[in-house]
Specification:
Rossmann fold, 12 helices, single chain, about 40% helix, elongated, about 290 residues, 7-stranded mixed sheet, two-stranded antiparallel ribbon, binds S-adenosylmethionine, 2 domains
C-alpha cells in the first residue's frame, strides 16, 4: 500500500538511507497525501495505462502510480536514490526504474517497446530547473501521448494557459496550446514539500490533441516564427522576425506580409492568437528565399 505521502514516513526513509538532498536536481519531495490523490485522480490512470514518471525521488508518487496503472517506468537521474527506490518499490512488480537523465532518454522508443506505440501518460512532480525542456521535448519529439499531468511552478502553469494580450502569454503558451488542452488541477503551497520550495506550485493537466487545433504545413517553421516573435519582447513583430536568422525573409516581404494579413506593421507578437500565428507562418513561408 502507498505509505510515503506522509512527512513522518518520508523522513524515516530518508534517515534510513542517509539521503542528502541535491539542490542541483530540484529535489522537493511531496509529503501531502491529499495532493498526491488529486494528481492521480486528475491523470485518470487505469489498469490499461503505461505511465512514465519523471523524477520519482524516493518513490512517493510511484507507489500510487503502481497501484493505479498497468505498468510504470520511472526515470531518476540521482543514483543515490536508486537503492531507496529498490526499497520503497519492492512490493510492486509492474515498475521499472531507469537511472538516467530524462533529457537523454528516447521516450518514443520506450513507448514503442513497452506500449506498442500506443499513447502513454506522463505523470510527474517535475524538477523545476528543466520544466520547459522536458515538456517541449515530449511534444516536439512526437512521443505518442495521451496526457501529461505535472507539478510545475505556479508561474509556469499560468504561462501555459493564458491567451493573447496578457503579460504571461508567450512561446510556451502557444506551444502547449498547439499540442494540448491545458487545465489547472490545483495550487500547491510550499508546505506540501520537503524541503520547501521558494515558490508556489500548480498541478496542471495537458490533454494532448489528436490533431492540432490549427492547419499547418510546416510545424518547425511555425515554431521558428513564434520564437522569433517573442525573442525581443519589447520589439515589434516585424523587428523580431527580421532580426531572426531562422527566418530567411527580407524586411520588405515581412512588412508586406503583415499588411496583406491586415496588421499594422508596428503590431506586437503578444497580440496574435495561435490561429493568427499559423496564418502568418503559412504566408511567410511562401516568401522564404
Ligand atoms: N516525485 C518525487 C516526489 O514527488 O516526491 C520527487 C520530485 S522532485 C521535485 C524532482 C525529482 O526529479 C528528483 O527526484 C530529482 O532527483 C529528479 N530529477 C532531476 N533532474 C532530473 C533529470 N534530468 N532526469 C531525471 N530525473 C531528474
Amino acid at each position: 500500500m502507498a505509505y510515503l505521502g506522509n512527512p513522518t514516513r518520508t523522513m524515516a526513509v530518508l534517515e534510513k538511507h542517509g539521503f542528502r538532498f541535491q539542490k542541483k536536481y530540484g529535489q522537493n519531495f511531496l509529503i501531502d497525501a491529499h495532493i498526491l490523490e488529486k494528481i492521480i485522480d486528475a491523470a485518470e490512470i487505469t489498469k490499461d495505462d503505461f505511465v512514465l514518471e519523471i523524477g520519482p525521488g524516493i518513490g512517493t508518487m510511484t507507489q500510487y502510480l503502481c497501484e493505479a496503472a498497468k505498468e510504470v517506468m520511472a526515470v531518476e537521474i540521482d543514483s543515490n536514490l536508486i537503492p531507496v527506490l529498490q526499497d520503497t518499490l519492492s512490493e510492486y512488480d509492474n515498475v521499472t526504474v531507469l537511472n538516467e537523465d530524462i533529457l537523454k532518454v528516447d521516450i518514443s522508443r520506450i513507448a514503442e517497446e513497452k506500449n506498442h506505440g500506443k499513447p502513454i501518460k506522463v505523470v510527474a512532480n517535475l524538477p523545476y530547473y528543466i520544466t520547459t525542456p522536458i515538456i517541449m521535448g515530449l511534444f516536439e519529439s512526437h512521443v505518442p501521448l495521451a496526457s501529461i499531468t505535472v507539478m510545475v511552478q505556479k508561474e509556469v502553469a499560468d504561462r501555459m494557459q493564458v491567451g493573447p494580450g496578457t503579460k504571461d502569454y508567450g512561446a510556451l503558451s502557444l506551444a502547449v496550446q498547439f499540442y494540448a488542452e491545458p487545465e489547472e488541477v490545483c495550487v500547491v503551497p510550499p508546505t506540501c514539500f520537503v524541503p520547501q520550495p521558494k515558490v508556489s506550485s500548480s498541478v496542471i493537466r495537458l490533454t494532448c490533441h489528436e490533431k492540432p487545433p490549427v492547419e499547418i504545413t510546416d510545424e518547425a517553421f511555425l515554431f521558428k516564427v513564434i520564437r522569433a516573435s517573442f525573442n525581443q519582447r519589447r520589439k515589434t513583430l516585424a523587428n523580431g522576425l527580421n532580426n531572426a536568422p531562422t527566418i530567411p525573409v527580407s524586411r520588405e516581404d515581412i512588412v508586406a506580409t503583415l499588411e496583406q494579413l491586415g496588421y499594422n506593421p508596428s503590431v506586437r507578437g503578444e497580440t496574435l492568437s495561435l490561429q493568427e500565428f499559423a496564418q502568418l507562418s503559412e504566408t511567410l513561408k511562401k516568401k522564404v528565399k
